[in-house]
Prior knowledge:
By secondary structure, the chain is an alpha/beta fold. Among the domains are: 1-57, no CATH class; 97-209, 3-Layer(aba) Sandwich (Dna-directed Rna Polymerases I, Ii, And Iii 27 Kd Polypeptide, Chain: A, domain 1), CATH 3.40.1340; 286-352, Winged helix-like DNA-binding domain superfamily/Winged helix DNA-binding domain (Arc Repressor Mutant, subunit A), CATH 1.10.10. It has 12 helices and 13 strands.
Amino acid sequence: xxxxxxxxxxxxxxxxLTLGREEYQKYKGSLLDEDEKPKPEPVTIKIKVTTxxxxxxxxxxxxxxxRHQDNQDTIQAEFQxxxxxxxxxxxxxxxxxxxxSSPDLIQMLQQSISTLKIQGVKSKLLSGKYASxxxxxxxxxxxxxxxxxxxxxxxxxxxxxxxNACQIVIQKNLCQTMHLIRAGDLGKPNLAGxxxxxxxxxxxxxxHIKPSLSSIHYLATYQSLVNSAKSQELVIGGKTIxxxxxxxxxxxxxxxxxxxxxxxxxxxxxxxxxxxxxxxxGKDLRPVKNFLLNLVKTQAFMGVPTLISQAVNQFPDAKESxxxxxxxxxxxxxxxxxxxxxxxxxAQSICLVLHK
Length: 356
């Protein structure tokens, strides 16, 4: 196969891996067809793979599982698996909001807002030292100019100067509504910064939003993928994903719509979906269920024990019994099926149900 595909006897490692994935997936797909019994013949192939200096080769983010067919649904499934993997990494790295600087936070927010095709996004609404703490944009519905200031500085003198800069912007009517994003302390009531804060954000149309840590994980995860795409290190389905393609994938999946900070800013609609819980501990198992389905989509055919172990690795808090229950739900929804239900659990295999 390699000789036919690359008659020159040379290729890059990524191309060889991609070809191997495709051929392996064809074989697994044939196992689902009782009429098609592949009879592979042993062959010996010598191929020279060219490589560059390891220091100059970027380490790509690659989804390893082979795909059963090159369609949008499978690519989206691979992307969502990658997102979940990177999101988990963000959770481990960022354990509190104060670990990030205010300019970094506003930059991450601006990237996400721009990706959602919000108009009029501009940095540095404030002037002076704290300009990098702010941005402005047009409301997606009424076209009003809105301002955002994000400060997590613990220093109350700094907080006062940020509030003073906000007041100047409002007095100059540079935005119709100002949003202050701050999870940290506002200082004691007798401090000038707190007094100015209450003057601006109490009983006015200006809004103070306290962001959740999970919102920062969403923003940080997307920023990580953006950086990988810009450096041509983001690979899905054996293909390098550029920034434009990444934006398409993230918007099609509506992943950023789940970010509560973006919901509070009225940039995306608030979610009305109720969490799927196990009924006892109140855990939201929806991400686990999505992970199971997406993994089967990318594999098409795999062992149930492998599927469960992958889910446990990704979601350590999920119990094996809960994961098995979610697999049963997916079977009942006719999205997947156990190929050999009469076998012992450790010998069972699962496949994707293809609807024509």
